[in-house]
Amino acid sequence: MKIHYINILLFALPLNILVNNQRNHNNSTYHTSNTKTIKSHRSLCECKLYAQSNYENDQEMKDVIKEFNDRTAQRFEEYNERMQVKKNQCKEQCDKEIQQIILKDKIEKELTERFSALETKIDTNDILTCICEKSVADKVEKTCVKCGRILGTAVPELSLIGGIAVYAAAQSATMKTFISETIDVLNRIGGMSQLFGAKISQFVTPSIYGKPMTLVTTILSEKEKLCLCVANKKKLLCGGIERSFEQNLPARIAYAVNQGVHTANETWATATTPTTFLTNPFVASSIAIMIIVAIVLIIYLILRYRRKQKIKKKIQYIKLL
C-alpha cells in the first residue's frame, strides 16, 4: 500500500510541472521588430551596371552576342552542307540499287518468258550432232590467221627469189654486153676477123673479165699456130702487116677487153637501179603480197578487238545474273 502512495506522489509532481509550463506559454507575448535587416550581398538586378538599359546599350555585350550568332550560323551552314553531301550520296546509291533491281527484274522476266516459250519435251532425235555454229567474224578471223601464216612464210621467200632473180638477170646482161662489146672491138682490128673468123667468140669468155692479158696471150699463141700454115701466109696478120702494127696488137687486144668491161659496168649500173628493181615482176608481186598481208593483219586485229569486247560484255551480263 505504501508503494502505491509513493507512486501517486511521484506522478503528481511531473503533472504539476507540465500544467505550469503550459500556462506560462499561453501568457507570453511576441514582439516583431520593424527594423530591416542589412544584407551582406547585392543581387544583379539591384546593380545599375546590369540594368536592362545598360545591358542593351553595352558595345562589348553586343559584340559578344554578334560573334555568338555568327559562329552559330556558320556551324549550322557547315552542318547543313555535310547533310546535303550525305543526302546526295545516299540518293545516288539508292538510284544505283534501284536500277540494278529493275535490270535484274527485267532480265528475270525476259528469261522466264523465253524459258516458258521453249518446249520441255525433247526427243533423242531432236539433239543435233554438231552445235559448233560460229559467227562470221570468227570465221573471218581464222581465215585471216591462216592467210597471214601462209603469206608470212611465202613473202620472204618470194622477196629473196625476186632479189636473186634481179641480181642474176643483171649479171647475165652484164656478161652478154661484155662479150659482144669485146668481140665487136676485136673485129674492128685489121685482119683479126680474116684470120680467126667465128673462132673469136671462143676466145672471149666471162673468165677473161677484167683480165686483158689472158686474152692477149691466147690470141697471140693462136695467131702463131695459124700463121704456120701455108694457106695463111698471105693473110694480113701473118705477113702483110707493118712492124709497128704488130707491136701495137697486144695493146689493141687489151683495149678491146677494157672497152668491154666499161660497157658491162654501164649495163650493170642500169640493171641494178631502184627503178629496174621495182619494175621486176618478182619484186612487184612481193610488194603487192606484203600490202595484202598488212590489210589482212589489220582486219584480224579489228575482229579480235571486237571479239574481246563481246566477251567482256558477256562476262558483265553473267555477273549481273
TrEMBL record:
The keyword Oxidoreductase does not apply. It comes from the Eukaryota. Residues 1-18 form the signal peptide. The chain crosses the membrane at residues 282-303. This is Rifin. Keywords: Coiled coil, Membrane, Signal, Transmembrane, Transmembrane helix. Residues 69-100 form a coiled coil. The lineage of its organism: Eukaryota, Sar, Alveolata, Apicomplexa, Aconoidasida. NCBIfam families: RIFIN. InterPro entries: VSA_Rifin.
